[in-house]
Design a protein that fits this description.
six-stranded mixed beta sheet, Nucleotidyltransferase, domain 5, about 45% helix, 5 domains, 21 helices, alpha+beta, single chain, eight-stranded mixed beta sheet, GIY-YIG endonuclease
Length: about 625
């Protein structure tokens, strides 16, 4: 029996994280403290001074636990991880889990590339961003390829120079083919320097270059060439217009302000890089009622920058955040340099913050009704599901399905929904290894066993790593498992969980004669669902996505097997020539109809191998 009064006496006077749990052992609040003893005791004293939300939270506490850390910064890191993993009911929560694209220049390579990247690694590459539009990044990459003819291939240069023919971009005039030695490393490096200057916001040289090229081509009556340079100039100016100058000091900074209404808030962020506004985005926070502006902005900073790889040198804020000094220290550690948090009081910097606040207010007012509808179909449907199944909380759902054709190439799929939305980055595919023949139950047992033993192993490894190590998709267990079937599939899942000593609720999606969900199989009962409810629509979305993902994976494997099964039977045709043939002819029918001379035109083919291919498809049939 947990005695709160006695446990309060045992609290240490050290920094750490405290975790509040209710009667069902669900985590309802996570916080950090400079001195655990003082902070936790405050919740159980002078309740009249508490906000309504804190009073409700304290009334729900059945027991608590704590983790001692060496410093308050370490406590902050652990707090961020635990909030992200458990999404406690009474914490102020960031609803959006967005990732932003970057442009990566592989300056550590002899012939660098300029690439699209979803993450920022410590790999000696140079990164530009983040950008808020994927389309904008792709437009910039396309423009740089046309301007500076930078390679996009994965060839290992200079080691692979001359080993293969140049790619299509060379013939389109968008690559100088360093893979053939057609451009020196020194000249190619100059092109990369020009590209990085462009990405840094220095547009003047390229504008001047294109204007001179356009005029020269026009004077020489090469009007097609002049039009090409005119179009490129237009693309450059379009990008220049999108990246408006906001300050002359070339600084990297984020501008953050918010607007709030009852329990929700919209946070507006401007991303300024090299003194230019390269993008903006907004985020939704819940659980802000009765919270101070300082706490709201502090909660956003912790959750947003915990998942953002790039930290700017300066962050301009509407209000001083709670734990400002600790937040600054934490951000500085992540960046590797000092990070400054400012609340500007006058001048252009204050106007930028005010502009961000006005944008946040506009979004809040405009999206109020939209937010309600979105909440009803996502978190509202999850609450309905939790109540329906008598579960304390459902945040993460994992849904599993098996696909096979007469037992051939049996595959499994794991689809993940968090906060009522598909989280495609956590989807996983499984090629079934141990089951031969059409045995869906056996295949499901293997898939679930692999998924959860992998998670157990990752969690064990995580204990040996730093507290700020990112949690993998397998280390996060679901609150509920959906099986694409009824009693049999549910029993397979329960058997695996019992074997691994895991306590996770399991539900089966029972289908009607049209293969649509008609109800849920839970705790040995089939529960009907109101087909007009948001809950039914959510379950239908999960079922459709699970089925689609499994079928697509199965189809891709089947196609690969069909291609390999035919071409691999030809003497002298290995993986490299098989790929070359399919890339050159696009289909098996085209290969069958080709003569020896046509087959010889495919890369990597010689007279002997071309003859083997021709004879394979034209050998006389046996009587």
């Amino acid at each position: 029996m947990f005695n709160i009064e006695e446990e309060l006496k045992l609290l240490p006077d050290k920094p750490g994280v405290y975790i509040m749990r209710d009667k069902s052992d669900t985590i309802i609040y996570v916080g950090k403290a400079v001195i655990l003893k003082n902070r936790v005791k405050q919740y159980f004293q002078n309740s009249r001074n508490h906000t309504t939300k804190i009073r409700q939270m304290v009334e729900s506490i059945d027991h608590f636990e704590y983790i001692v850390t060496d410093s308050e910064v370490e406590a902050l890191v652990l707090e961020c991880n635990l909030i992200k993993e458990h999404r406690p009911k009474y914490n102020t929560m960031l609803k959006d889990d967005k990732t932003y694209p970057y442009i990566r220049v592989t300056v550590n390579e002899a012939y660098p590339r300029v690439l699209f990247s979803r993450e920022m690694k410590r790999d000696k590459s140079k990164y530009f961003g983040p950008y808020t539009s994927t389309t904008a990044v792709k437009d910039i990459l396309d423009l740089l390829r046309k301007l500076y003819k930078i390679r996009t291939c994965n060839r290992n240069l200079p080691k692979d120079i001359g080993k293969e023919r140049p790619c299509l971009y060379y013939y389109m005039g968008q690559c100088d083919a360093p893979c053939q030695g057609f451009i020196s490393q020194e000249d190619y490096g100059k092109n990369i320097d020009h590209a990085t200057q462009f990405l840094s916001g220095n547009y003047a040289p390229v504008v001047k270059m294109l204007e001179e090229r356009m005029k020269q081509a026009s004077d020489e009556m090469e009007y097609e060439k002049a039009a090409t340079n005119r179009d490129l100039l237009g693309s450059v100016k379009q990008i220049m217009n999108k990246q408006k100058i906001t300050h002359t000091d070339q600084a990297d900074r984020d501008i953050i302000a918010f607007a709030r209404n009852k329990d929700e808030a919209v946070v507006q962020t401007f991303f300024i890089r090299g003194g230019k506004l390269i993008g903006r985005d907004h985020f939704y926070l819940t659980g802000v009622e009765d919270e101070s502006d300082s706490k709201v902005i502090g909660s956003f900073i912790k959750q947003f920058y915990a998942g953002t790889p790039y930290i700017p040198r300066e962050i301009f804020l509407e209000a001083e955040p709670e734990d400002e000094e600790i937040l600054s220290q934490w951000l500085s550690n992540k960046r590797g340099q000092k990070v400054y948090l400012h609340v500007p009081k006058k001048g252009n910097k204050e106007k930028l913050v005010e502009l961000a606040k006005k944008n946040a207010l506009l979004i809040l007012n405009k999206d109020a009704e939209k937010l309600k509808r979105e909440e009803a179909r996502t978190t509202g449907a999850l609450k309905e599901l939790a109540d329906y199944l008598d579960l304390p909380l459902i945040s993460r759902i994992e849904s599993f399905d098996i696909s096979n054709t007469s037992g051939l190439e049996t595959v499994g799929s794991m689809v993940v929904f968090e906060q009522g939305k598909a989280k495609k980055s956590d989807y996983r595919k499984f090629k079934i290894r141990t089951i031969v023949g059409p045995d869906d139950y056996g295949a499901m047992h293997e898939m679930l066993m692999r998924r959860f033993t992998h998670g157990i192993r990752e969690l064990e490894e995580l204990k040996e790593k730093k507290l700020d190590e990112a949690l993998g998709s397998f280390t996060r267990y679901p609150d509920l498992i959906f099986m694409d079937g009824g009693k049999g599939q549910v029993n397979v899942a329960l058997e695996v969980l019992e074997e691994l000593k895991l306590d996770i609720a399991v539900c089966g999606m029972v289908k009607d004669e049209n293969h649509r969900t008609r109800g849920l199989y839970y705790r040995n009962k089939e529960l009907p669902i109101d087909k007009s409810s948001e809950l039914f629509k959510l379950i239908t979305r999960i079922q459709d996505e699970t089925h689609r993902f499994a079928i697509e994976y199965h189809r891709s494997l089947r196609k690969k097997k069909q291609v390999r099964s035919i071409l691999d039977d030809i003497k002298g045709i290995g993986p490299s020539r098989r790929r070359a043939l399919m890339k050159h002819f696009q289909s098996l029918e085209a290969i069958k109809e080709a003569d020896i001379d046509e087959i010889l035109k495919a890369p990597s083919m010689n007279k002997a191998s071309a003859t083997e291919v021709y004879n394979f498809f034209h050998k006389p049939k046996a009587d």
